[in-house]
Specification:
Structural class: alpha+beta
Largest sheet: 5 strands, mixed, barrel
Number of domains: 2
Distance between the termini: 78 Å
Radius of gyration: 22 Å
Number of strands: 8
Strand order of the largest sheet: 2-5-6-7-8
């Protein structure tokens, strides 16, 4: 057996290198053609122009996944890997494999997530996904402990050609949110706050969340800043799901600002209590 391609004679990548690559649309097509019996287990995500009512398998999570949020899912057992394979969505538009995920306690709006990497580890497989488009659940057809099969309607953000007069207003709100995070990064850390907000200060904090969630988006990208803020701020799953359900960008930015005001009031109250002691 040779380690070179029989056609171009270039050296072939190692098996370990191939194992570490993301599962792609092309690889999936090759597998389907090589093993046609598996085709019945694949669901095809229709293009964005398709009418609502698409029926797909949806994974249930203990928390809502937001657009642009990165999530790593460990697959430690063969059963986990089989479930994952059966729930894959093939998206020809983006040439990728995707998953649909839903907050199990509020089965109304979920997120389509793209698989970005698959890593083989000693204790199993680690799947990395990133949230993309939202979807609304129209009708649930089947329910199990870990997933549902439901008809959905995909929701998309405005494209550049669909910008409205609200754009300037959304940038203004986004600027206020962005300024809040810059202020946090320039503030000295403090352990005197409640456990709910401890550590939410200082450049080290900003560096750590940017490592986890990506760079702080610019106010000129209010959509990206909205979802980044929701992933970073210390709020509960219920609040995040309410944001996920909210369609208007201005309304979502308003919710983020309410969260920020609540945090600021906590800090102000704590400082006043410390000064009076």
């Amino acid at each position: 057996m040779t380690n070179s391609c029989p056609i171009c004679q270039k050296r072939l990548p190692s098996y370990q290198f191939i194992q570490a690559q993301p599962v792609t649309f092309l690889i999936n097509r090759v597998l389907l053609e090589r093993y046609p019996a598996d085709q019945s287990q694949k669901s095809w995500l229709p293009p964005s122009t398709s009418p609502s009512g698409t029926e797909i398998p949806i994974n249930l999570l203990d928390f809502p996944l937001l657009p642009s949020q990165i999530l790593r899912i460990p697959m430690r057992t063969l059963q986990n890997q089989v479930i994952l394979r059966n729930h894959l969505l093939v998206c020809p538009e983006t040439q990728s494999l995707q998953l649909a995920v839903l907050y199990k306690f509020k089965a109304s709006v979920g997120t389509i997530a793209k698989i970005t990497s698959v890593e083989q580890r000693e204790n199993g497989t680690l799947i990395t996904i990133v949230g993309m488009d939202r979807f609304a659940v129209l009708k649930i057809k089947q329910t199990t402990e870990d997933h549902v099969v439901a008809e959905i309607e995909r929701k998309f953000e405005q494209t550049e050609s669909e910008h409205t007069t609200d754009d300037l207003s959304s940038v203004k709100l986004a600027t206020r949110i962005h300024s809040f995070f810059i202020h946090l990064a320039q503030s000295a850390p403090s352990r005197s706050f409640s456990n709910h907000v401890q550590g939410l200060l200082g450049p080290v904090w900003l560096d750590s969340v940017q490592t986890m969630y990506g760079p702080l988006p610019s106010p000129e990208d209010p959509v990206g800043l909205c979802w980044w803020s929701a992933a970073v701020l210390p709020v509960g799953n219920h609040e995040r799901h309410v944001l996920l359900e909210t369609n208007g960008l201005m309304d979502r930015l308003g919710l983020i600002l309410l969260w920020i005001q609540d945090l600021e009031s906590q800090w102000t109250g704590r400082r006043e209590a410390e000064e009076s002691e």
